[in-house]
Amino acid sequence: MKEIKVGLCGLGTVGTGVVNLLKNHKEEIKHKLGCEIVIKKVLVNNLHKQRDIAIDREWLTNNPDELVNNPDIDVIVEVMGGIEDTNLLLEQAVKNKKHIVTANKDLMAVHGQRLLRLAKENHCDIFYDASVAGGIPILRSLSDGLASDRIQKIMGIVNGTTNYILTKMTDEKLPFEPVLKEAQELGFAEADPTSDVEGLDAARKMTLLANLAFKMEIGLDDVEVSGISEISQEDITFANSLGYTIKLIGIASINRGKVEVSVEPTLLPHDHPLAQVKNEYNAVYVYGEAVGETMFYGPGAGSMPTATAVVSDLMEVIKNIRLGISGNSYISPQYETQLKQNTEKYTKYFIRMAVDDEAGTFQKITNVFSDQQVSFAKILQLPSNEKETAEIVMVTHQISKQQLLSSIENLYGLSVVNKIISYYRVDGEE
Amino acid sequence: MKEIKVGLCGLGTVGTGVVNLLKNHKEEIKHKLGCEIVIKKVLVNNLHKQRDIAIDREWLTNNPDELVNNPDIDVIVEVMGGIEDTNLLLEQAVKNKKHIVTANKDLMAVHGQRLLRLAKENHCDIFYDASVAGGIPILRSLSDGLASDRIQKIMGIVNGTTNYILTKMTDEKLPFEPVLKEAQELGFAEADPTSDVEGLDAARKMTLLANLAFKMEIGLDDVEVSGISEISQEDITFANSLGYTIKLIGIASINRGKVEVSVEPTLLPHDHPLAQVKNEYNAVYVYGEAVGETMFYGPGAGSMPTATAVVSDLMEVIKNIRLGISGNSYISPQYETQLKQNTEKYTKYFIRMAVDDEAGTFQKITNVFSDQQVSFAKILQLPSNEKETAEIVMVTHQISKQQLLSSIENLYGLSVVNKIISYYRVDGEE
């Protein structure tokens, strides 16, 4: 076999990166694989669009059949995005015994498990490392490098847009709205930023990480998600004065076979490795029973970083083709998915509230918490901007989510409590 | 094939970890591999020593032949250390078609390339990810996850002992000697700390990383090494006041096919990801042409972290046995080793000197540097503790090592320069 023929779906940012990488690193790739990679067809929407890349017009097609039903093509590289239509296309490709490399987290979070099984039945590989944390080889590290360990917790900064926004809000003491606007102008945020800002993008990636780490089938609906649009400059300042940095953290953890997956603003001690991940960078912190703390850091998006992950996956597919071992990498889930209830989810919380500044207020509040067996590690009381009110900021010891929610409900029953302004998870410290 | 039989050489810290990990994670490992791993023999020095581990006495032997010449054994796991004798043992094992997993950086840095070739000839695998940065799957990430990229630079904190010592010296403002003593008492430094403290241990690991990243055969003799025993509290304080943290950094870089590998105390900007790696932790920062900046962080040593790497490698060996593709992972060097000369090694330098505190001194010094076309980014002049002398601390712009060495030689020709107290590489900033 002298060459492997690839059908590339999509010629946007990542697709262009893939074409460039295959061209620029041609010799090294050939040395490693012992064969050449040749792009046969490229699926695009617009055949006549002007493109910033030297590409043979003959390659271009807007007909998916010329890729997925083309007997000449060995591997489909899918970097065009979309969920349902793209899924049908990839299913068809797999049924035609074509291997798949995809960077499509949206699709993999929804159809991944079924597609992986279908591929295995057809002796095909599907690799999707580019779909989580761009250039960071995190899926491989979980499935190979840490294969012998039992992963207990993953904390990920897996969305570059929100990390960029929070970094700017923290470093430049600016509110959310203007920072989002700047991020949009710089291309770090989409025109419609909802999926990033409200945590959905991160949730999709956490699903993929959790399934691989815990060997289950956790669905997107199993992930509790909250985004960053409600974080205020005051939250950041209070967190900072208590020794914490606010990050949008995806958490996946397991205890006694029960899992919890969430994406939410989280306070981390300033010296936690994740607290120091700035701007649009991504990082995935993995805690394994045997290995302890590890972290994988790098660019979470971008043309060439993502292309690196795509082409590295493509090289793995080709190695497997040449060795005749395709379709062996997928391991079916070992455990039934069991989700933790609120009474089983334990963490610390940062709680910030506006209260009447009068004698007895503090005692009433602490009574509510005592009733729920909630105790505190840190308490800060400050006069607020409004007359005759004060702000109280507290950091609890480890409590269950149930204890938190009951306490908050009961706090609202107190006339001295005007508002629970915000509450956030606190993680990453003993 | 129902089980894979392993011969374990060494039952010290890591060997004990391997036995425990195989036992504790037995079910998961079996699920992933579809077969069991069985330890058949364990090579030890002392058959009768009391051990903190439940192990079948029948397994123990002090005769290597019972492992390497035992037709019953499929894989040798070598975690006993040593170079020449161990090399002979592993050679014999490979000739007997046994696969190898080793955590032995000393051996791999010296005999690695020959052993890898011998294994390939015998259709055997050798994996050694545990030998660099303990629990961090860095060798795999270079060879698989970043396979498609062209690695341009690696900077590694790959020795936990020195990082622990430098962290304590920095955070607690203590000198080298008492911190070393404390590290020895806590078990973070050996009774004879030379190999760690003087950088040799890190140099071995950098050789392995550089060979894999640059596809060459760089020998240990090609690495320039200096350790941390000469770093003073004043160096740390001056570096800090200029915005830098001192770390013992292994650097491997390539430009136009020429490489430079060194281990030396290096100043990094405080916000560089490596500057924030504390205590005994390791981290490897990888700069790839396409992917950009990535970093891999985790425990560099210890029983269970290293065992995780060993057993993950063992699982890879077994997967290959079961798929019938052993001996395919080694890729022979693609390029001839070409080392950079001093005129081709470019970086910034921190230079600290004691000078006479008299008119014209500063001009004489800057003249010396101007003659060598050396210019500065930062300059600090301070009165020294000794009368009529001052200290000057400078950080240069990018210069060649040749420019540095010539400047220093010429500075010693000036009567106003009493001593070049220290000079260090400055890296990690634009």
UniProtKB/TrEMBL annotation, chains A, B:
Molecular function GO labels: homoserine dehydrogenase activity
Pfam families named in the record: Homoserine_dh, NAD_binding_3
EC number from the UniProt entry: 1.1.1.3
The protein's enzyme class: oxidoreductase
Cofactor(s) named in the record: a metal cation
Domain ACT, first and last residues per copy: 350-422
Reaction catalysis annotation: L-homoserine + NADP(+) = L-aspartate 4-semialdehyde + NADPH + H(+)
Pathway info: Amino-acid biosynthesis; L-threonine biosynthesis; L-threonine from L-aspartate: step 3/5; Amino-acid biosynthesis; L-methionine biosynthesis via de novo pathway; L-homoserine from L-aspartate: step 3/3
Protein keywords: Amino-acid biosynthesis, Methionine biosynthesis, NADP, Oxidoreductase, Threonine biosynthesis
Family, as annotated: Belongs to the homoserine dehydrogenase family.
Protein name listed in UniProt: Homoserine dehydrogenase
Species name: Aquibacillus albus
